[in-house]
Amino acid sequence: MTPTTAMVMAAGLGTRMRPLTNDRCKALVELHGKPLIDWTLDKLAQAGVETAVVNVHHFADRLEAHLAVRTSPRILISDEREQLLETGGGLAKAAPLLGEAPIFVANIDSVWVEDDAESELRKLAAAFDPDRMDALLLITPTENTLGFDGPGDFFMDEDGRLTRRGERASAPYAYTGVQILHPRVLKGLPVEPFSTNLIWNAALKAGRVYGCVMDAFWMHVGDPEAREAAENRLRSLA
């Protein structure tokens, strides 16, 4: 069953995207004529998401004004103006808005193009098993990326269970910034700054983090150079 609620992580300062974030938040930096956050929200809406919780901090008023004109999905704001809470703390603060059923969690710098605009998220949803999984991460082979130059994040066994790269020189899969998470893992977490990695660590130790491999070509739009490269690729596909 496809989640009908999503958490969209949009509160970051976007320091790596400067100077493009000198007058706006990263979520409002445009790619191919569309703000990054709309690339994410459009994908979620096409997959059947009805409600998206968006956390705001940097240029929060401007982002809220932009989101106010959207009709799908319905937008709820998780306000982090007073304190930026990082990814884990942002989820903990938003937990009362997220409900009890599994949710999509998506970054706003993850972009892909596919023939069927719903396929990757629907495939992820079809693979999620709440009895076995606390988190199902959308991952991609490191060679099938643009804007990602890291050594990889995860190994995946034959059952789809993930383990971290750890001290090894490289790993075959990169995390795309999109996952399905069961909100039970947020219960009791402090509303303070911490990384989602701390949530994953407990689930990884219990063997409850799995991966779903993306078929589409993935673009990580994390800095001006990556944005320009993504712009060029999208222009070539037009």
Task: Explain what the structure shows.
- By secondary structure, the protein is α/β, with parallel strands linked by helices.
- Helix content is 27%, strand content 26%.
- The chain has six helices and 14 strands.
- The strands form four sheets. It has a seven-stranded mixed β-sheet with strand order 5-4-1-6-12-8-13.
- Strand 4 (51-56), helix 2 (60-67) and strand 5 (74-79) form a beta-alpha-beta unit.
- Helix 3 (86-98) crosses helix 5.
The helix-and-strand class reads alpha/beta
Q: Helix segment count?
A: 6
Estimated share of beta-strand residues: 25-35%
Distance between the termini: 33 Å
Order of helices and strands: EEEHEHEHEEHEEEEEHEEH
Low-confidence stretches: none
What is the count of β-strands?
14
- Which overall shape is indicated by the principal axes computed on the Cα atoms? globular
Gyration radius from CA atoms, angstroms: 17 Å
Tell me the major beta sheet.
7 strands, mixed
Mean pLDDT: 94
Main sheet strand line-up:
5-4-1-6-12-8-13
The percent of residues in helical segments reads 25-40%
